[in-house]
Amino acid sequence: MSRYWNSTVKCIEPYAPGEQPKECGFIKLNTNENPYPPSPRVTEAIKAAAAQTLRLYPDPSCDALKSAVGAYYKQPMERVFIGNGSDEILAFAFMAFFEQGRKILFPDITYSFYKVYCALLHIDYELVPLDDDFGVPVEGFLKKNGGVVIPNPNAPTAKCMPLESVRKILDCNSDSVVVIDEAYIDFGGESAAGLVNDYPNLLVVMTLSKSRSLAGLRVGFALGSGELIEGLERVKNSFNSYTIDRLALAGAVEAIRDEDHFNETRRKIIETREKTVARVREIGFYATDSKANFIFISHPKVHASELFRRLREKKILVRYFDRPRLDNYLRVTIGTDGEMEEFIKAVKRIIEG
Known about the structure:
four-stranded antiparallel sheet
C-alpha cells in the first residue's frame, strides 16, 4: 500500500474486469463480448476518419452521433448524452444525481461497479435483496431514497424486469433519479427508452459494446429529460470535453445506422442462447431465463469453482464470482454456435467424469 494514497484509495476495492488472455487459443466466454464483427460500414467509416482528420480534435458535443441515436429512438438530440462506454456515463450519473447523506438503492446481486462508484464518491447505499429466483423485487424500491439504479436485464443473473415494473418504480420515485442500466436490453428485453418522455426522473443508459459489437471502441449513450442530460454534460465538461475520439464517433454513427446488421447479429445470438439453455438443462444444469447475451447456470453435482477451473484447463474461459449466493454459479457469454458446442462438450465431459 502506497504511503501517498489518500484515505479513499486506500480503502477502495476496485472493479475486477474479466480475464483478457495474453495467449491465443482460448474460447472466450467470460466478458460478454459479441462473437460477431461489427457492421462493415463501421470499419469503413473508421478507416476514412483515420485517413483524414486525426490532427483535429473531435466534436466535443458529438452531434452526429447524438443525431443518429436520437433518430433511432425517436428523441431530439437534447435528450441524448454520449459517453466513453456506459461505465463512464454511469460514473457521471453517480456524480451528477446522487450525494452523501441520501442512500441510493440497487440490488444486492448486480453489476459490482455500482459499489465502487459509491465508495469512490462517498455515496451511501442500501442493497435490495433479490428474491429466491434472482428476480428484482419491485417493492424494495418503493421507499424513500436518494436515487435508484437497476440493471435490466440484471447482471450476472441475466433476468429481465417487465416494463410495467419499471413504471411502478418510476411512479413511486418522482423526487429522485431512477437509472435503468440497459447494457443487455437488445437481446430480448423491452427497453424503457420510450418512457423518457413521460418521466423526467428517468435516465436510460445503453452501450454499443454488446449488441453493436463495439466493445473495443468504448461508446455508450444515455436517454433522458433535458434536465438530466444537462446534468451529465456539466459533469463531463468539468473533467474532459473530448471523451469520444474521432474514430469512435465515426464508427458508432454507422453502427447505429446499419439496422440490418444489428438485427441479424442479435438474432443469431438469441437463437444460440436459447439452444444453449436447452442443452445445459438437459445435462442437469439450473439456468435462469436469460434475456441477455449470457447465461447464468449452476450444476447440483459439480461446484461452479471446479467447473471454472477445469474449463480453463481446456482453454474455455467463463466468469466465476466467489461471493455469497453466487459462488456456485457461472456466467457464460453466448459465443458462436461452434464455440457453444465446444462448451457443451467440455462441461459434459467434466460432469460425466
